[in-house]
């Protein structure tokens, strides 16, 4: 036997404990304690109106009539003036989970009509999910998909019906619009019944319209002139058809002016209905499908409590020419607040009809129908994931500062960028270039396919050799660059930039399909790691790592390095002797560590992107996407040498033939200055004329000056030899800035 | 949720007819990721009657076997698309907004995610 003394359960209202009865909503608890949540306004106890909202456990705009009282719950009334805080520092926001459910039919609302629809669908063998607010499943939106989103105590539900959404949400009671309607003690008839059943004393009740069942009251007609009282209603004044007024003293006014369909979810989702014989995606049934009762044309008072819109406000916008319901909504914001028009919509329709307009259909409904927290709105959503190379943890272990670059986490630097720079220029350094796009193409049509795809003469690339290539779109604009490496007569490895590889793969596959080429394509970007060994001592390092047979410049071959099988490409992005080691990603750490160990006394260091971008700039290598624009042609980039217009068709050729006849208007050029290094994006001036902008800039330790790539306009038909940047002179020079003969890379 | 680990597999791209005709080594799981492509676990050396086929060792995926109930719960919480009811079945799509592949058997499932996404995937589903 439980002998524990009975402890009343309490929640906290505005800092004071308030006892509640098991099963009571927060609103009932407040009303039992003589508290009106918002200080006045008609209560519906059905979740339709905004007159019971409060801050509950730190979340504002909670409908207290739909929220069960729980021990220790913190309830704060909204301020009488202004708005409640939406974000509070003292409330931690926990992530909200989501469940995805799939079915054929979802029924929203389980009144008589909804239950009948659910049973009928189940009888027909359909897989049915029912959502009912009274069971704690509050639907807040209907979206294309179709997708129905509901809030529950345990998180969000995302229901994906394959066939149909049935809205059976019933109807709301129409509230009164009249002076004094913001007093306390005004309730709808259904609310009066619920309060009576709950044992809340209503005092002397006057019922306007249909009286509440089981509640002793005095019944009067349905035209309310005004409510009277201070704080709480003390009398209601009604009029009859002749206009004669009658004043009735009371403690509570029960209002029943008809019903208004709760069809917002249907109105929100009806654009999902395709004009096909397959039938509608969304249907509305029962009372929610019936026409709204239309209350008398409002003459005075608050129409929309949510946005504080009065009849006078409606009149003002009417006089300004806003006669359409949708426009009145926009002009006044009526219908855009907490209840999304549940209270005001029938009155605004009546207002407009009363001024000679036809009764207009309800305005558009849009998600959400209920307030949601940021955490609820974000439930199940993720930002774009950023992949990590196999060396990610190794970089962190070596003190790397990581950055998101080109859609990957990459090491920006390892603490002392200058040391990394000089390691490349004077000793040897390792760079993680695993993020480069790597695509294999094989097949009887591989050569023909790549000839059509690229502007270079692919047939002149011998097996085992590599070539720098541009990738053009069909307008002749550069969309990516990289290497073509010919593995055999009919097999090639293509590389692309880190940021462009995903699009480039789609580009390659689309053209292969379009041209019906007999090729096999495999994207190896995530499967292969790649380490760039670069610097004058790179050859020595690889020899120490067990690889003697190294390829010549722009040649590739297989070999073992530090015990790891590699494809070794002799390329150079840094301008120094460089070998790119492609290998299975699972071997990356072993290879990296093997190289670092073998090169310890050679001064080997890793280098990050910060330094790599400077090194490549010294060589004048462009970065597609940074130095190129959306309309950069090879001619504008000074890369005509990479395009062979005398070969048969390739993507972009016709556009290049056409645009090459147009006088050049701007060009990507090299600039150098003895002044401070300008920021990327800095404006170039030729005297007072705008002459272009900087795309890449860096101070070159090897050259002792700042170097840039920049878009420079042709002024009076010529490229200026000098421009100013922030008042400092910059000279146009040819690129590469560093080792223009390329002797170091070819060493 | 068990930890994902890098798997050793073989990736085969070949003419669809040649791929259909391959007699895969016993004990391998063959996932047809595209009409002309298969991911075979574990690593093997299949004979493919296509002289232009690309057959490569594949270490680009992390994987883990989980129970059927764990798989159902995972998909319900992190996946907007509906997995077919049939078993076994192979499905591909975003899970927790990360590209994934799932081999669903009656009692268990193999979950595969590209290795570069594995760490973030684990964070998202935990």
How many separate structural domains of chain A?
7
Tally of DSSP β-strands of chain B: 9
- In total, the number of strands of chain A is 41
List the uncertain runs of chain B.
none
Mean pLDDT of chain A: 95
Major interchain interface with per-chain residue totals: A-B, 42 and 35 residues
Which structural class do you get from the secondary structure elements of chain B? Answer: alpha+beta
Number of domains of chain B: 2
Q: What CATH first level of the largest domain in chain A would be assigned?
A: Alpha Beta
Shape of chain A: elongated
Span of the ends, CA to CA of chain A: 93 Å
Helix content of chain A: 10-25%
Number of helices of chain B: 3
Task: Assign an overall shape of chain B.
Answer: globular
Overview of the structural elements:
The complex is a heterodimer of chains A (747) and B (126). By secondary structure, chain A is of the alpha+beta class. Helix content of chain A is 19%, strand content 31%. Chain A folds into seven domains: 9-77, Ubiquitin-like (UB roll) (Roll); 95-172 and 260-293, FAD/NAD(P)-binding domain, CATH 3.50.50; 175-257, FAD/NAD(P)-binding domain; 294-367, Orthogonal Bundle (Arc Repressor Mutant, subunit A); 386-435 and 527-631, Probable tRNA modification gtpase trme, domain 1 (Gyrase A, domain 2), CATH 3.30.1360.120; 437-524, Alpha-Beta Plaits, CATH 3.30.70; 663-747, Elongation Factor Tu (Ef-tu), domain 3 (Beta Barrel). In chain A, the strands form ten sheets. In chain A, strands 6, 7, 8, 9, 10 and 20 form a six-stranded mixed β-sheet that branches. In chain A, a hairpin with a 2-residue loop joins strand 1 (9-13) and strand 2 (16-20). Chain B has two domains: 5-59, no CATH class; 62-125. Helices cover 22% and strands 40% of the residues of chain B. Chain B is built from three helices and nine strands, in the order E-E-H-E-E-E-E-H-E-E-E-H. Chain B has helices spanning 16-21, 68-78, 115-125, and strands at residues 5-6, 9-13, 29-34, 37-41, 54-58, 61-67, 89-95, 98-104, 108-114. In chain B, the strands form two sheets. Chain B has a five-stranded antiparallel β-sheet with strand order 1-6-9-8-7. Chain B has a four-stranded antiparallel β-sheet with strand order 3-4-2-5, with no helix packed on it. The termini of chain B are close together. At the A-B interface, strand 6 and strand 30 of A face strand 5, helix 2 and helix 3 of B.
């Amino acid at each position: 036997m439980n002998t524990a003394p009975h402890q009343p359960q309490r929640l906290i209202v505005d800092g004071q404990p308030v006892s509640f009865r098991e099963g009571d909503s927060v609103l009932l608890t407040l009303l039992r304690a003589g508290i009106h949540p918002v200080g006045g306004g008609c209560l519906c106890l059905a979740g339709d109106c905004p007159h019971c909202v409060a801050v509950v456990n730190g979340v504002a705009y909670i409908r207290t009539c739909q929220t069960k009282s729980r021990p220790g719950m913190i309830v704060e009334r909204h301020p009488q003036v202004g708005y409640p805080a939406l974000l509070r520092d003292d409330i931690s926001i926990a992530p909200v989970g989501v469940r995805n459910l799939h079915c054929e039919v979802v029924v929203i609302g389980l009144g008589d009509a909804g239950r009948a629809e659910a049973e009928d669908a189940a009888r027909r063998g359909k897989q049915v999910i029912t959502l009912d607010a009274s069971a704690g499943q509050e639907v807040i939106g209907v979206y294309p998909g179709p997708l129905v989103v509901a809030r529950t105590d345990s998180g969000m539900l995302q229901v994906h019906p394959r066939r149909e959404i049935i809205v059976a949400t019933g109807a709301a009671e129409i509230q009164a619009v009249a002076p004094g309607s913001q007093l306390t003690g005004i309730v709808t008839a259904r609310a009066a019944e619920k309060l009576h059943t709950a044992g809340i004393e209503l005092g002397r009740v006057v019922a306007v319209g249909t009286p509440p069942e089981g509640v002793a009251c005095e019944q009067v007609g349905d035209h309310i002139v005004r409510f009277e009282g201070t704080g709480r209603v003390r009398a209601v004044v009604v009029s009859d058809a002749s206009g004669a007024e009658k004043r009735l003293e009371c403690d509570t006014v029960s209002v029943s002016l008809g019903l208004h369909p709760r069809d917002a979810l249907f109105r929100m989702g009806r654009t999902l209905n395709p004009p096909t014989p397959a039938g509608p995606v969304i249907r509305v049934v029962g009372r929610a499908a019936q026409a709204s009762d239309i209350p008398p044309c409002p003459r005075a008072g608050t129409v929309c409590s949510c946005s504080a819109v009065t009849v006078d406000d409606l009149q003002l916008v009417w006089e300004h020419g806003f006669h359409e319901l949708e426009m009145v909504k926009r002009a006044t914001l009526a219908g855009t607040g907490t209840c999304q028009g549940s209270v005001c919509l029938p009155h605004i329709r009546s207002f407009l009809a009363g001024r000679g307009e036809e009764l207009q259909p309800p305005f558009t409904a849009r998600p959400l129908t209920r307030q949601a927290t940021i955490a609820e709105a974000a439930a199940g959503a993720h930002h774009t994931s950023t992949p990590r190379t196999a060396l990610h943890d190794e970089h962190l272990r070596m003190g790397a500062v990581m950055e998101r670059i080109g859609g990957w986490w990459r090491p920006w630097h390892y603490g002392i960028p200058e040391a990394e720079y000089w390691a490349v220029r004077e000793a040897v350094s390792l760079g993680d270039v695993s993020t480069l796009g790597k695509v294999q193409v094989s097949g009887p049509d591989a050569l023909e396919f790549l000839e059509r795809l690229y502007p270079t003469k692919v047939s002149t690339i011998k097996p085992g050799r590599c070539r720098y290539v541009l990738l053009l779109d069909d307008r002749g604009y550069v969309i990516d660059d990289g290497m073509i490496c010919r593995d055999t007569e009919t097999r090639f490895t293509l590389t692309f930039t880190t940021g462009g590889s995903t699009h480039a793969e789609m580009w390659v596959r689309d053209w292969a399909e379009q041209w019906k080429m007999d090729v096999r394509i495999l994207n190896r970007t995530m499967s292969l790691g790649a380490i760039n060994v670069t610097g004058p001592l790179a050859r020595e390092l690889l020899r120490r790592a067990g690889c003697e047979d190294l390829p010549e410049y722009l040649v590739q071959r297989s070999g073992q390095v530090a015990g790891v099988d590699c494809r070794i490409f002799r390329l150079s992005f840094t301008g120094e002797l460089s070998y790119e080691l492609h290998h299975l990603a699972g071997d990356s750490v072993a290879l990296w560590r093997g190289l670092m160990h073998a090169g310890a006394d050679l001064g080997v260091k890793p280098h990050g992107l910060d330094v790599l971008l400077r090194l490549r700039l010294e060589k004048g290598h462009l970065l597609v996407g940074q130095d190129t624009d959306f309309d950069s042609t090879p001619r504008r980039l000074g890369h005509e040498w990479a395009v062979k217009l005398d070969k048969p068709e390739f993507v972009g050729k016709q556009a290049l033939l056409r645009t090459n006849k147009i006088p050049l208007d701007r060009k990507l050029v090299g600039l150098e200055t003895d002044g401070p290094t300008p920021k990327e994006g800095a404006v170039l001036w030729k005297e007072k004329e705008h002459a272009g902008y900087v795309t890449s800039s860096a101070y070159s330790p090897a050259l002792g000056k700042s170097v840039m790539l920049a878009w420079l306009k042709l002024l009076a038909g010529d490229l200026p030899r000098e421009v100013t940047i922030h008042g400092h002179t910059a000279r146009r020079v040819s690129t590469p800035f560093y080792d223009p003969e390329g002797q170091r890379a070819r060493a | 949720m068990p930890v994902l680990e890098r798997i050793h597999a073989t990736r085969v791209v070949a003419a669809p007819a040649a791929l259909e005709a391959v007699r895969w080594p016993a004990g391998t799981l063959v996932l047809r990721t595209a009409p002309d492509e298969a991911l075979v676990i574990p690593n093997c050396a299949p004979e493919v009657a296509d002289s232009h086929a690309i057959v490569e060792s594949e270490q680009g995926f992390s994987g883990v076997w989980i129970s059927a109930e764990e798989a159902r719960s995972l998909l319900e919480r992190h996946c907007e698309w509906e997995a077919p009811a049939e078993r076994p079945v192979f499905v591909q799509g975003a899970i927790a907004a990360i590209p994934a592949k799932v081999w669903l058997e009656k009692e268990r499932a193999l979950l595969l995610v590209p290795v570069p996404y594995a760490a973030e995937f684990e964070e998202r589903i935990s």
